[in-house]
User: What shape does this take?
Amino acid sequence: MIYMDYSATSYVKDEVFNEMAPYFKDKFGNASSIHAMGREARKAVDAAREKCAKAIGAKQTSEIFFTSGGTESDNMAIRGVCAAYAGKGKHIITSTLEHHAVLHTFEEMAKQGFEVTYVPADEKGILDMDAFKKAIRPDTIFVSIMFANNEIGTIQPINEIGDICREKGIVFHTDAVQAMGNVSIDVDKLNVDMMSISGHKIYAPKGIGLLYVRKGIKFNPITTGGSHERGKRPGTENVPGIVALGKAMELANDNLDAHVSRMIEMRDKLIDGIFENVPHVRLNGDRDKRLCTNANISFEYVEGESLLLNLDLKGICASSGSACTSGSLDPSHVLLGIGLDHQTAHGSIRFSLGDGNTMEDIDYVIEVLPGILENLRAMSPLYELEGGVKNV
Ligand SMILES: *Cc1c(COP(=O)(O)O)cnc(C)c1O
Assistant: This one.
C-alpha cells in the first residue's frame, strides 16, 4: 500500500504509541481521583499539557484545553466566543474555504442571530486581505480563518490577520489542524487568540485534540458537567489520548525542519513528475505558500472518483475533495471557491504526504499515473473532441 492521504488521517507513531500504551491498562487511574493511581494519571496529563503548550509557544499550561479533536475545538471556540461576547456585538467573520467544522458552525451561529461575513480567497486560495479589512465593523467580535487549507494546502497570512484583529480588539481563532507539524507555529508571534489542533493528523490517535485559548479571552463552555479542564470542557480526561497528543506535538516540533525539507523534496518531485508526464493538468492552490505535504491536482477529461478507484487498484490511497465531502456528489466548496468550474473540480485529486512516504512511493505514482489517465481519457468523448496538449 502506498498511503498518500495524510491530510485525512495519519498512523500512530511508535514513540507516541509506546508512551500512551501504559495508560490503558497498568496506569488506568482517573485523573480526578485523589489516590495514588489518580495522581499518577494527573501527573501524566499535566506533563502532556506542558509539552503541548511548549510546542506552540503558549506561555501558560492553563491556556490548553483538551478536547475530542479538531471539530470539537472549532465548535468550542466559535460557539463559546459568540456566547461570551454577544453583548459586545453580533458580527463574525470567516472565509469561504474553511473546513466544514467551522463553516457549518458559522451557519448555525447565523441561525442564532449572528451576522456572518464570508471573506473570499483569490484564485490561488489565499485570503483576499482587502476584502477582509473591509469586512471588519465596529460590532465585529470574532474572526476564524484557517491556518492551512486541508484540500489545496494553501497557507494563510495568519500573522497579518492576527495583527489586524489585535489592533481592533477582535478575538482571532485559527484552525491549525493541518498546519501543526508542517509549519512553525508560535501563538504569541502570530497574535493568535485561539487555535484548534487534532491528534490524528499529527501521528497521535483519533479522538483527541486541543483548543488553545489565550489568557484573558472569555468563552462559554458548550457542554455542562464536572469541573474538568477548568469547567470549560467537562468529562473524564482521555488520559492515554492526552499523553499521546503531548508526545506527538513534542515530536512534531522537534522534527519540524527535517520533516519540512523531506516533504518538500517529495512533494515537488511528485508535482514536477506529474506535469512532465501527463498532459492537461493543473495545480490547485498557491505554488509556494502551500503545505509541504500537499499536491492537489486537477486532471482534465477525467472523473476524480474513477481516477481514485484506478489508483486504489494499483495500491495507491489518495483523495478526491476532502474525506468529509467525498462520498457526496457535490464538488468541493474549496475548489469552486478558487474559481474552478464543476467539471474541473470533479477531476481533482489530493495527494497528501507524510512521514511514512519514500521517494520510491513518488516514483511509483509517477510511473503508473500516465497509463491510468490514458485509459480513462480514451473513454472520454470530450477528450476526443478537444484533444491536444495544454497544461495550465
Ligand atoms: C481534520 C480536520 C478537522 C477535524 O478534525 P477532527 O479531529 O477529525 O475532528 C478540522 N479542521 C481541519 C482543517 C481538518 O483538516
